[in-house]
């Protein structure tokens, strides 16, 4: 299937590793020009060097910390000066684990800025060129925790649920301009972040990391963790022409782990 991504420009946030890197690589391999953004430019440049030559030339590394509003605005100015982007993939690293009864107010405010408020601002600034062209894609990476809260991840469950409300509201506002707005919900995808969470849960329960991972895999109908590439394939479809009538949706990529309908 031709996703129609050639000559499209995409900004992928959080693209230094894990899901963000997989998404950025996949979009580039599908023919898009990709601005891969993260705090660690060195990590982005490392995976860019591993791409085939034609795709390598379509990816640029951009330094961007979503927790720093000045950096968000600077990235917007640079991109808007080049005509903006057609595809925006909002993706932030997960916040520290913690239970709802113990997370402090300052942590809520700090994490909300980087995971929600500044992403709302970034999207708002990049929307006008999409509206002018009558074509655009806004895809936000969240977590299955917005449908089925994950123990010990109070910050993620709460903040990403707020992002869900924003995404659904925005989808209705811009659908008439040819812009789709969707969320993708990863389940247990094998990334560094997942390893960190398994380790935190193992320490909290005083058991081995392997025991935590074994129990997690047993709870997934597919019987395994997903791969970043499997996740990125879904995002690439949503970013393309064939998904033009999919908007206001939240799509699970979790091997069937979320049991609600």
Automatic annotation (TrEMBL):
Pfam families reported for this sequence: adh_short_C2 (PF13561)
Domain of life of the native organism: Bacteria
Signal peptide: none
InterPro entries per record: NAD(P)-bd_dom_sf, SDR, SDR_fam
SUPFAM superfamilies: NAD(P)-binding Rossmann-fold domains (SSF51735)
Gene3D superfamilies: NAD(P)-binding Rossmann-like Domain
Family membership: Belongs to the short-chain dehydrogenases/reductases (SDR) family.
PANTHER family per UniProt: 3-OXOACYL-(ACYL-CARRIER-PROTEIN) REDUCTASE, NADPH-DEPENDENT REDUCTASE BACG
Full protein name: SDR family oxidoreductase
Gene source species: Alsobacter sp. KACC 23698
Phylogenetic placement of the source organism: Bacteria, Pseudomonadati, Pseudomonadota, Alphaproteobacteria, Hyphomicrobiales
């Amino acid at each position: 299937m031709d996703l129609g991504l050639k000559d499209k420009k995409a900004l992928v946030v959080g693209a230094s590793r894990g899901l963000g890197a997989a998404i950025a690589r996949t979009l580039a391999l599908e023919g898009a020009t990709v601005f891969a953004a993260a705090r660690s430019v060195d990590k982005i440049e490392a995976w860019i060097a591993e791409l085939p030559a034609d795709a390598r030339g379509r990816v640029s590394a951009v330094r961007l910390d979503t927790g720093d509003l000045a950096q968000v605005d600077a990235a917007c100015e640079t991109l808007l000066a080049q005509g903006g982007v057609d595809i925006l993939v909002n993706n932030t690293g997960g916040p520290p684990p913690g239970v709802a009864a113990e997370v402090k107010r300052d942590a809520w405010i700090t994490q909300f800025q980087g995971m929600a408020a500044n992403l709302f601002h970034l999207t708002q600034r990049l929307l006008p060129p999409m509206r002018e062209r009558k074509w655009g894609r806004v895809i936000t990476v969240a977590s299955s925790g917005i449908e089925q809260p994950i123990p010990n991840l109070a910050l993620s469950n709460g903040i990403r649920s707020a992002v869900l409300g924003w995404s659904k509201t925005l989808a209705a506002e811009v659908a008439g301009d040819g812009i789709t707005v969707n969320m993708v919900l990863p389940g247990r995808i094998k990334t560094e972040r997942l390893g960190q969470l398994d380790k935190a849960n193992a320490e909290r329960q005083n058991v081995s990391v392997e025991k935590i991972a074994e129990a997690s895999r047993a709870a997934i109908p597919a019987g395994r963790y997903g791969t970043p590439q499997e996740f990125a394939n879904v995002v690439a479809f949503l970013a393309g022409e064939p998904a033009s009538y999919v908007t206001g949706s939240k799509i699970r990529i979790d091997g069937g782990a979320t049991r609600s309908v």
